[in-house]
Amino acid sequence: MSSNLSPIDKAKFVAAKRAVDYVENGMRVGLGTGSTAAWMVKCLGEMVRDDGLKITGVATSTRTAELAQQVGINIVTLDEAKWLDLTIDGTDEYDHNLNLIKGGGGALLQEKIVATASDQMIVIADLSKQVDALGAFPLPIEVVPFGWQTTKALIEETMVNLDVLGRSTSLRKNGDQPFITDEGNYILDLDLKRIGNPRQLSLVINQLPGVVENGLFLDICDVVVIGNGDGSVEVRDINSGTIEHEQIDVIETDNLFVDIAD
Fold first, then answer.
1. What is the pLDDT, as a whole number, of residue 252?
2. Which residue among 30, 49, 68, 216 is least enclosed by CB atoms within 10 Å?
3. How far is it, in rounded angstroms, from Cα 194 to Cα 106?
4. Do 103 and 60 touch, CB atoms closer than 8 A?
5. Nearest to residue 45, comparing CAs of 261, 211, 258, 224?
6. Active-site annotation holder among 46, 93, 111, 213
7. What pLDDT, in 10s, does the model give residues 66-77?
8. Do residues 172 and 191 make contact, with C-beta atoms less than 8 angstroms apart?
9. Cα 201 to Cα 159: distance, rounded to the nearest angstrom
C-alpha cells in the first residue's frame, strides 16, 4: 500500500482493516459496496492470499462481485448462501443509535437484503459520516421506472405531513441518462436535511406505489468501526454498549492495495 494515502483514505483503510478482524475461517460474509467497502474487500483478499482464509462472499453489487473475484474471494449468490454470518459495509451517515442512511453508491436494495440476512452487520466509516440526526445526506429511494415522475410527486406530497426540513427530490443521473440500479430501477434522492422520525418516514415511503425500498437502515447495524486519519479507530458496539479505541499499523507493502478509487 502506498504511504502517500490522504487522511480520508487512511481513515477508510484502518476502519476496513479493523473490521475484517470479525471475519473467521469458513464464514459466509456479505460484502458491501462503495469506496470504503472496497478497502475491506481488498483486506479480505490479502487474508485469502497470504493467510489462507477461506470464506464465501455474497456481494451487494456487480462491481463488488467483480472486485472480490479479482482478489480471490469465492462469490456465490444469496440464494446459494441462504444466510450469512456477518456483513461488512460502508455508510453515508450514521447516528448515535447506529441507524444509517445508505445508497449513495446506488446499491441500497441489495445492501439491505444482504444486511438483514446476516447475524451481524459491521459498518465501516470515518467520523465525517456521524450526525446527530439523519437526513443531511440525501435519502436514496429506489423506484420502478414506470411512472417514476408520479412516484416522485407522491413522495414530495407525503413529506409535507412528516417531520422533515426539506422535500426536494431529484432523479439520480449517470451522465445525461437516469442511473440504473443492478435491479433495473431508478433512484430518487430526497433532500430532507433532517429526519425527525426515521421509522415513521421509512414506513410511509415504502407504502407508496412505485417505491421499491428506501435507504434508511434502522436497527440493522450492530457495530460501527470509525477510522481516523491518524491511524486510530473507534469501535462502537450497540449491543454491548462498549466503545473501544485502538491504533492500526499502516505498513507499506506492494500487495493488493493499488488503484483503490472512489
1. 53
2. 49
3. 21
4. no
5. 258
6. 111
7. 999 999 999 999
8. no
9. 8
